[in-house]
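Quality-control log, excerpt.
Job 1 of 2 completed; input and output follow.
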Amino acid sequence: MLLVRKLALVLVAGFSLLNLAAYHHARAFFFYSEGEERTPAPEALSWGEKAKVLLTGIKVPKPRAYALPGDVGLPFEEIVIPGRDGVELAGWWLPHNPAAEAMVLLFHGYNSEKSGLLPEALIFHALGLEVVMVDFPGHGDSPGRQTTLGVREAEDVTTALEWARARWPERSIYLYGHSMGGAAVMRAMALHGAKPDGAIVESVFDTLLDAIRFRFRLMSLPSFPAAELLLFWGGRQLGVDGFAHDIVAYADEVETPVLMIHGAKDNRASVTGAERVFDALRGERKFLLIDSAGHVNPCVFEPERWREAVSGFIANR
């Protein structure tokens, strides 16, 4: 009996420590820090560094802009865009010909901000589109420190689209979202009534749970039950249901034309997962796979194919 009791105590203690660690890691993952040095990408860490991260958690400082549109020759104005719950979001407006018939709103990914999409903005602007680049809450120059990986950000996509419709009622408006931004765009169209003229969804994951599982695999760690616990405690801290953040399910509600772009070497969101999202779409759709690209800025790897696909998609509306 004594042995059984000791074993039970060990199991309870182990389970408690595992959940405590998961709570701590979730806090570090979903809440950006201030004034700390960022933990390098998992694939760049040594085994010793990975062990340290496992014990102490990752450090992700709030992402800040590393460049301005003017640095790459783009004219721009700093603007304020309405977000959810009355929060004002920081943005850049890249004006073009006043007679431009279309514009695109750009939404960045996790641990990024609007300047991370300057390569895409250059191409959109060269195609003759007005461009608006948005910082989600907790990123760049927008207030806050937390992220929900597209759950609540979908509301920001919707309010930004409504704002653009009111300001430029005569123009066709497209949404572009990278990774988390793509998930937010899909959720906005599926659940929040966002109706752009078309959407470009790039490097998107199929479910938030799978996206977190990928992070553990990059650390060469088993994803079960670590990913499930991190998502559970992250959801508790944020007040959202991360397990229900299913982009495949959103796609089944989307009838808006969608161009999906994905890098064949993406190690953050699988091609298989992206294809599941694509197959579930109900409206007009097109898929571009860029063989040489990873997760970030596929347009840099094959700019002509990227440009041709985007240009053709917009021209056919």
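Job 2 of 2 completed; input and output follow.
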Amino acid sequence: MDYPVGIQTFDDIIKDDFFYVDKTEVVYQLARRKGYYFLSRPRRFGKSLLISTLEAYFRGKKELFKGLKIAELETKWESYPIFHIDLNSENYSNEDALQLVLENYLAKWEEEYGTRPSEKTVSLRFSGIIERAYEKTGKRVVVLIDEYDKPLTSTIDKEELNEEYREQLRAFYGVLKSQDRYIRFAMLTGVTKFSKVSVFSDLNQLDDISLTDDFQAICGITDEELDIYCRKSIEELAKKYKTDYADMREQLRKKYDGYHFVENGVGIYNPYSLILTFQNKKMKDYSIL
């Protein structure tokens, strides 16, 4: 079995037949809602794959979901204008880094949806793009922001630069509230919640699903999923460690079942650690930093 180490794109995982735990039922339950959502999870926990799966769904890529649970639930596949921002690619060590990242996304979208001379700031440009995308397609847009807090976590020890990034993000994310009438669905992911960033203080319709029963297992791997999707891998690992399936399962549980996002909720295994364990056929402490 091929494991998607370092691969976080749903399209690539499905097309190249990599190992995949089917999360599409819970993704469907989230995506069919209208509104603004936030999910906090540790690094390397599947947040980027979740965003990529949502993007594939909202692009109406029905063919990618063949054989998955969502194919039994969705009867009307629609394509929406999508604005996907991944803030995880930069180290944000200089003051221009965030501005350049945002401008790069905006320039690409303006090629498709146009611009106005009066739109000088990144927030005005983003606002105009959303409005014109709706006018051009007749569809309310989808906004997906992965690792919204990376510029802040990367500069936590640089007070002045960190505050500058807060101000930039405050204006940029504020567009989500001002252009609410044009937005069908918005999803933000990150490692933590920053109370001073206005996306949380001003965007009062944002629904934090990080600690909810319905979405506690939207990322990561549960005990049930481990038995369904990883049985062969566990059997191979048990053979190497000269033990049986039940004992190997218990060893994996003690080693990697360390997350409970809801009180009395299901235990969640870190997917990165499990995938590396199965690929390397070796149990150890794999860093998720």
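Post-run check on job 2. The mean pLDDT is 92.
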